[in-house]
Amino acid sequence: MRYQLTPIHCRPWLLNALSFKLIESHYENHYGGALRRLNAITEKLETVDFDTTPGYVINGLKREELVALNSTLLHELYFASMGGDGGKPPAQIADALTRDFGSVVRWKSEFVAMGNALAGGSGWVVLTYLPRDRRLINQYASDHTQAVAGGVPILALDMYEHAYHIDYGANAKAYVDTFMRNLDWKAVEGRYEDASKVAPPRALEQPEFGDLPGVAPEEVKAMIDAGKPVQFIDTRPRHFVSRTQDIIDGATWRDPERVQDWVGELSKSEPVVVFCAYGFHIGCKTAITLRDAGFDAKFMKGGHSGWRAFGGPVKQNV
Ligand SMILES: [Fe+2]
Hints:
The mean pLDDT is 95. The protein is elongated. By secondary structure, the protein is of the alpha/beta class. It folds into two domains: 184 residues, minor pseudopilin epsh fold, CATH 3.55.40; 110 residues, Rhodanese-like domain (Oxidized Rhodanese, domain 1, 3-Layer(aba) Sandwich). The strands form three sheets. The chain has a five-stranded parallel sheet. A three-stranded antiparallel sheet has the order 2-1-3. The longest helix has 28 residues. The termini are far apart. Strand 8, helix 11 and strand 9 form a beta-alpha-beta unit. The site of fe (ii) ion (FE2) has 7 residues, from helix 1.
């Protein structure tokens, strides 16, 4: 397979305060160079015998492939990010920036500061949509490689010196300001519209427990911190509890094998949250038993491990 060239997206003669010499050199030598390198590496990889080639050779080729591929992709996005007149972003992207950064001004302030912070160094500043959390973030990408896994980049600022040195020398700040004045917001908004249709990763499904209501550990902690009444029950199997040194602060352990022995101690007027080790069968089954008995019971997603993973407080199991 060979990667195909993408024609330059912006019209160089429409750019404000960026010379033909700079843009042509950037597109032909740096974008073109990355694409040519990428195809040369791809060709080389096709000839490699992976059973006999030393690991350091494979590492080197795959690393260079990643650098060249990301450089190619980010340069294509860079040239597609300019060609407008900067100004105010249209409503849809302005609303998204306000939702995720507090305001357009706040987003711009972070994005520009990240560009200025790369003066004298090199790297990319990228506005990326993250389907997992359905939100936008500003991210660095040094050495063309630190892309956010699963992210969809919609705007890229090239902070390698080759992007501005011909016109601006060491004055990276003036270049960043110029880039912002050339932003093509309509194109950015179009990419945001496409990116926001990307589905988040599939959530855990437990079809055997149907519509049993679950609650995230962060929400349980927020309920406890807010002083809301909640009966928080640890129903990890006895052998799990004796093996681990800690229990969740605020939770009471009850043997899931003997629900009938302790169910009478619970109040039906306050909600119950039960959890097991990881949020699978035992916590869910106990929640079902309690719901069948008339309690307002939910299981805690992720269980004890989920609580620990998000940093919830635990105490010694004595
Ligand atoms: Fe570049």
